Amino acid sequence: MIGRLLLASTLLLAAESAAAQQAVAHMEACTDWDFIDGTFGARNSCPKPIAILFMTLADQRIVGRDVPPGGRFDAGAGERDLRRGWLFTACPVGYLPNVKFSVANGQTILDSLYNCLPAGRPGV
Questions:
Q1: CA distances to 10, 19, 67 from 55, in Å
Q2: Spatial contact of 81 and 35, defined as CB atoms under 8 Å apart
Q3: 72, 43 in Cβ contact below 8 A?
Q4: pLDDT in tens, the chain (124 residues)
Q5: What confidence score (pLDDT) does residue 7 get?
Q6: Which of these, 98, 58, 95, 51, lies nearest to 73 by C-alpha position?
Q7: Secondary structure, 3-state, the chain
Q8: What confidence score (pLDDT) does residue 120 get?
Q9: I want to staple 84 with a disulfide (CB 3.0 to 4.6 A). Which of 8, 16, 32, 58 is the partner?
Q10: How buried is 115 (Cβ within 10 angstroms: 0-12 exposed, 13-18 middle, 19+ buried)?
Q11: Pairwise CA distance, residues 109 & 51, whole Å
Q12: Is 37 left (phi over 0), alpha (psi -120 to 50) or beta?
């Protein structure tokens, strides 16, 4: 009987741990992109903070910031910087895209075919 209780407790803990590692949906719908004073950026329109990763294809420099609700993400890019294209991901704060944020994964990112995983998860 005690063995069964220990096994059940172990299985319950394993299930809770696995659930904590589950992917969550990206939060791209929370980003409203525009230019303000010649600088490209996005406003977080969701009630939760989001983590944005951004890259212009011209220089492939990654800019990442956490943006509070109602806050603005300044991409540090002007219109000229965007001519060759750009990528971004938006995840809840504490999460990262489940694909490496890179030009190699650009089509997956552009097609919004990524989810978000807890940032502390191995391999993320």
A1: 43, 31, 16
A2: no
A3: yes
A4: 454 433 344 433 444 444 446 999 999 999 999 999 999 999 999 999 999 999 999 999 999 999 999 999 999 999 999 999 999 999 999 999 999 999 999 999 999 999 999 998 555 5
A5: 38
A6: 51
A7: CHHHHHHHHHHHHHHHHHHHCCCEECCHHHEEEEEECCEEEEEECCCCCEEEEEEECCCCCEEEEEECCCCEEEEEECCHHHCCCEEEEEEECCEEECCCCCHHHHHHHHCCCCEEEECCCCCC
A8: 80
A9: 58
A10: middle
A11: 15
A12: left
Domains belonging to the chain, first-starting first, are: 24-118 (2.60.40.20)
Residue type, 7: L
pLDDT at 123: 52
Which residue, 116, 86, 88, is CA-closest to 101?
A: 88
Task: Name the token pair of 66.
Answer: 């956490």
Instruction: Give φ, ψ of 6 to 5 degrees.
Output: -65, -45
According to the model, what pLDDT value does residue 112 have?
97
